[in-house]
């Protein structure tokens, strides 16, 4: 059994982390903390956590010698404080994306994580998508040298979205508001498949007052390996289909990974160097994994083996996802000028 503490007992902790942790036999939640204690007490009940382990401060969680790692689901501007406590008390921590509220906090987190042998992980669950492995191992080798892509994740504004009620999202201290909140997931998928981004030219706009800041992004990207493409993101539009697709163009074919709602995620590809040599389309259907379960198993293994090299999403990887959003916002302020992605 690996004992853990859950801090920040809000929507995602209650609806997703707790049920997922309870599915993994050897994970045992034993302590909790939340700013509003009454919510932590309700959470403790659901999690079968003893009432004497519902703590009054974040620090007490880290002081508890029975806690083997901390799972933090705080408004992201508090991630840095949690990582500092993790280093001070020599206790592994995993914490929710985006890595931080801005690049200066994110840089500090990367430096702190480099200074220790402790496993420190950003819970960027999209890095565990099975689609990434299928694309990289089964499809990309067949479509030849990759030259470009169009990545589109757009949808209508959802006024019943439960996350709209959270005050830290209504008045975001984190750069980009929803653009970084959800955008880092999309960029995790994009970069896991095609590698890191070198520069971006983007235009952003605020369509909804409720978003607190700009909420849609249209952009052009240049990858480190020379591949070029477009990245369009936003869920603040008027009535339209929710559409999520990632088309990759190679010199010997192309692939379309489509995970729009309403059907199973599908990967459809064709090969050939031209219209004349075009193959029939081939479809790969697959069951997607539970990415939250995968990330917890990954972190459990790195904690048990005391091996930080096992962590799939160390802070430096998650830094890049946020740095792309930061560069896009910067670019938009300069009317779409090309902006290099900052390094940690
Ligand atoms: N991976 C994913 O797909 C995914 C999905 C959703 C959310 N998330 C991440 O999960 C985290 C939590 O999001 P959520 O939607 O669950 O938000 P939430 O419901 O607002 O939960 C945040 C919790 O943090 C607590 N908190 C607020 N200010 C605090 C402070 N100053 N110090 C300590 N605790 C404080 C809140 O306590 P009170 O009860 O006092 O307000 C609340 O319980 C965020 O980092 C978010 O990005 C990830």
Note down, in words, how this protein is organized.
The chain has 344 residues and is of the alpha/beta class. The protein folds into two domains: 2-126, Rossmann fold (3-Layer(aba) Sandwich), CATH 3.40.50; 127-290 and 323-340, Dihydrodipicolinate Reductase, domain 2. The protein has helices at 11-23, 37-47, 58-63, 79-88, 103-114, 130-139, 167-170, 178-181, 183-194, 291-304, 315-333, and strands at 2-7, 27-33, 54-55, 69-72, 93-96, 120-123, 146-156, 197-205, 216-223, 228-237, 243-250, 253-258, 266-271, 282-285, 339-340. The protein has a nine-stranded mixed beta sheet with strand order 14-13-12-11-7-10-9-8-15. The protein has a six-stranded parallel beta sheet with strand order 3-2-1-4-5-6, sandwiched between helices. α5 packs antiparallel against α11 (315-333) and α9 crosses α11. The mean pLDDT is 97. Bound molecules: NADP nicotinamide-adenine-dinucleotide phosphate. The site of NADP nicotinamide-adenine-dinucleotide phosphate has 23 residues, from α1.
């Amino acid at each position: 059994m690996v004992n853990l503490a859950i801090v920040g007992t809000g929507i995602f902790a209650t609806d997703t982390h707790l049920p997922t942790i309870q599915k993994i036999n050897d994970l045992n939640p034993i302590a909790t903390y939340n700013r509003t204690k009454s919510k932590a007490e309700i959470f403790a009940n659901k999690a079968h956590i003893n009432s004497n382990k519902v703590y009054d401060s974040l620090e007490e969680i880290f002081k508890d010698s029975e806690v083997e790692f901390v799972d933090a689901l705080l408004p992201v501007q508090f991630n840095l404080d949690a990582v500092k406590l993790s280093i001070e008390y020599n206790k592994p921590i995993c914490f929710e994306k985006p890595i931080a509220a801005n690049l200066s906090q994110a840089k500090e987190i990367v430096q702190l994580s480099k200074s220790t042998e402790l496993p420190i992980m950003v819970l960027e669950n999209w890095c565990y998508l099975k689609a990434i492995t299928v694309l990289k191992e089964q499809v990309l080798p067949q479509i030849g040298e990759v030259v470009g892509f169009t990545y589109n994740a757009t949808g209508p504004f959802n006024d019943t979205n439960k996350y709209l009620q959270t005050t830290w999202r209504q008045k975001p201290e984190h750069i980009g508001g929803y653009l970084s909140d959800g955008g880092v997931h999309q960029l995790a998928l994009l970069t896991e498949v095609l590698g890191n981004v070198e520069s971006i030219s983007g235009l952003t706009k605020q369509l909804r007052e409720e978003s607190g800041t700009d909420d849609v992004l249209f952009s052009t990207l240049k990858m480190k390996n020379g591949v070029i493409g477009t990245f369009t993101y936003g869920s603040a539009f008027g009535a339209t289909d929710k559409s999520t697709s990632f088309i990759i163009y190679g010199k010997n074919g192309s692939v379309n990974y489509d995970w729009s709602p309403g059907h199973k995620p599908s990967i459809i590809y064709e090969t050939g160097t031209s219209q004349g040599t075009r193959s029939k389309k081939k479809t790969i259907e697959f069951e997607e994994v539970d990415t939250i379960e995968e990330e917890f198993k990954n972190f459990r293994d790195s904690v048990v083996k005391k091996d930080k090299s096992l962590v799939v999403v160390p802070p430096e990887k998650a830094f890049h996802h946020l740095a792309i959003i930061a560069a896009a916002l910067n670019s938009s302020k300069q009317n779409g000028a090309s902006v290099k992605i900052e390094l940690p």
